[in-house]
UniProtKB/TrEMBL annotation:
InterPro entries: Lon_proteolytic, Ribosomal_Su5_D2-typ_SF, Ribsml_uS5_D2-typ_fold_subgr. Keywords: Hydrolase, Protease. GO terms for molecular function: peptidase activity. It is an enzyme of class 3 (hydrolase). It comes from Streptomyces cinereospinus. This is S16 family serine protease. Its EC number is 3.4.21.-. Residues 154-236 form the Lon proteolytic domain. Gene3D superfamilies: 3.30.230.10. SUPFAM superfamilies: Ribosomal protein S5 domain 2-like (SSF54211). Transmembrane segments: none annotated. It comes from the Bacteria. One of its GO terms (biological process) is proteolysis.
Amino acid sequence: MLSRLTRPWALAVCALPVVGLIAVAGLAPLPFSVAQPGMTANVLGEDRGTPVITISGAPTRETSGQLRMTTIEATGPDTRVRLGDVLDGWWRTDQAVMPRDAVYPSGDTVKEIEQHNEAQMRASQDAATEAALAHLGLDGKGIEVDLELADVGGPSAGLLFSLGIIDKLEGDGSGGDLTGGRTVAGTGTIAADGTVGAVGGVALKTQAARRDGATVFLVPSAECADAKSELPAGLRLIPVTNLKGAVQSLTALERGTGAVPSC
């Protein structure tokens, strides 16, 4: 049949299935999530009127500056992301298209995912407390740390929680603040031994940090390249691999002495 058609008609007929596939792809939901810079929270301050970090069993100190944990905001696990959303996200620097399984790796329903994220947050808070007290050489049996941060799940605030506990208990060890009065932001998981782990979405988190006034951003060393890809002007990156290194870097920055690593 095609051999009897003129070339323009033949091309048109051949193109019909392709057009149909494109139309279907444009309407069909795709296994992606679209993410953008999310909220940040100062772990040295309050969240909705409640202190983020409350410590009992040991004297605490007044702090200046801020330690801001960062987040990304992604389309929900039950949101239907279509081809147009994906194409738009690819071209924008304030959005990222991520595989849905990378954003929501566990569970099929919203409730299951929320429960998973809450469990990760609780485990992260326990590890952050253990790592901070071990860094300071304090007995965790006599000191109680309560961490409260509403509507945030997952483990990526672990590093900032540990630094906040250290700043409230000891600061830089010489009467000063770890922040040096600055607004310091960052991200990274924390293990009980102080190891800092990668989290994902750091390019968006640097944008959230700068938007909310940060001039310094602590990033897991393995994610330096990602953090630099869309780095906002005026934001300094400091790579970290463990809690001890993060404290040393902030102390050196605060005192103006010693080397401060950079990405």
